[in-house]
């Protein structure tokens, strides 16, 4: 099995498909390879209606059990991102560092009621 993986060069196959068929090539049943710089802003910049591929749901389909970067549901991603942005902002981190500087045990608890999940991080 190791020898088979060493000879796989999918990027070369996809490059040859783009040369033959153009900028947009279907490379799987639910997967496209897009080789057009102007598509980047359409796909990734807000407001976007595109979702992440099923590959990101490999760990779990339960949004409370996967990391923020693997969340495929846009509404859930926005809610969780907002909590992390507050916690990792200058003001949020300043409170953590002050507590640590004073020698206090600092347990940070972030609750997102709309998701029904509790995310905890102990920094003691």
Keywords:
124 residues; alpha+beta; 2 domains; two-stranded antiparallel sheet; two-stranded antiparallel ribbon; 5 helices; 40% helix; elongated; disordered C terminus
**How many strand elements?**
4
**Would you identify the regions where 5 or more consecutive residues have pLDDT less than 50?**
108-124
The percent of residues in helical segments reads 25-40%
Please state how the strands of the largest beta sheet are arranged side by side.
Answer: 1-2
Mean pLDDT: 74
Largest sheet features: 2 strands, antiparallel
SSE series: HHEEHHHEE
Q: Compute the number of helices.
A: 5
- Gap between N and C termini: 45 Å
Radius of gyration over C-alpha positions, nearest whole angstrom: 21 Å
| Overall structural domain count | 2
Class of secondary structure makeup? alpha+beta
Shape field: elongated
- The fraction of residues in strands falls at 15-25%
GO molecular function, one term: oxidoreductase activity, acting on paired donors, with incorporation or reduction of molecular oxygen
Protein name: Cytochrome P450 CYP11/CYP12/CYP24/CYP27 subfamily
InterPro entries: Cyt_P450_sf
